[in-house]
Amino acid sequence: MIADLRTGAPEGYLAGDDVVDLDHPVVRALHDRLAADGPDDATYARRAFEHVRDRVAHSSDVDDPRVTVRASEVAEAGVGLCYAQSHLLVALLRSRGIPSGLCYQRLADGSGGHVVHGLAAVWVDRRWHRLDPRGVDVPFDLVRERLVYVPDPGLGERDVPGVFAAPVVEVLAPLRSVTDVRRARLAHDVPSMIGDRCP
Questions:
Q1: Which candidate in 17, 30, 68, 174 could, as Cys together with 73 as Cys, close a disulfide (CB 3.0–4.6 Å)?
Q2: Which pLDDT belongs to residue 194?
Q3: Please, are residues 84 and 74 in contact by the beta-carbon 8 Å criterion?
Q4: Phi and psi dihedrals of 37, rounded to 5?
């Protein structure tokens, strides 16, 4: 299921799956800690975003070999690629009953190719807001979009349209095929065609 970022309804963006394993005890415990004192949905969404942004290191930044994919793996390890960080954020939001999904960008990799960057989106105040937990300096903002990367069409970069209810298989397959993220050639393994097959 793919919702339009501007007009898509949130139905279908609350369920868990093998990757967004929101019922896992580790994810539930983290949800309960972030939900302490019963904040409203927007405050909880900010807490969840800031937890992932500040407490889950990006694998490349810390030269960590572990490949985490499931939200529970990310929560336990405290490390993951941008996709994994987004999987955890979506699991935490859905645990609260807040519709959320996954978004992607196609970005230049600096060597003539492209890589897919993972984001999350949350449904608050009757509209989707994209969030990028990858950015250590990116604030939580439901008024003005704040992302780490702004695609440059001149470099063949672009936002992949829509909000995905589940992770895209083209992203999961290469992640699940490696045992050391430092040796993975994700810029080449993740197909740049992801954006061409989506509405």
A1: 68
A2: 52
A3: yes
A4: 70, 15
CA dihedral 35, 41, 43, 47 (to 10 degrees): 50
CA angle 116, 119, 120 (to 5 degrees): 150
Residues 14/99, Cβ–Cβ less than 8 Å: yes
Question: Which two tokens mark 184?
Answer: 């993975």
CA–CA separation, 50 and 193 (whole Å): 31
In the chain, what are the domain boundaries? Answer: 2-197
Three-class secondary structure of residue 62 per DSSP = helix
Compute the distance between CA of residue 170 and CA of residue 134 in angstroms, rounded to an integer.
20
Class of domain 2-197 (CATH, top level): alpha beta
The residues of the chain scoring below 70 in pLDDT are 1, 183-199
What pLDDT score was predicted for residue 69? 94
Q: Which residues pair with 57 in a beta bridge?
A: 79
Q: Quote the DSSP letter at residue 147.
A: -
**Residues 64, 78: Cα–Cα separation, whole Å:** 10
What 3-state class would DSSP assign to 57? Answer: strand
Contact, 198 vs 161, CB < 8 A?
A: yes
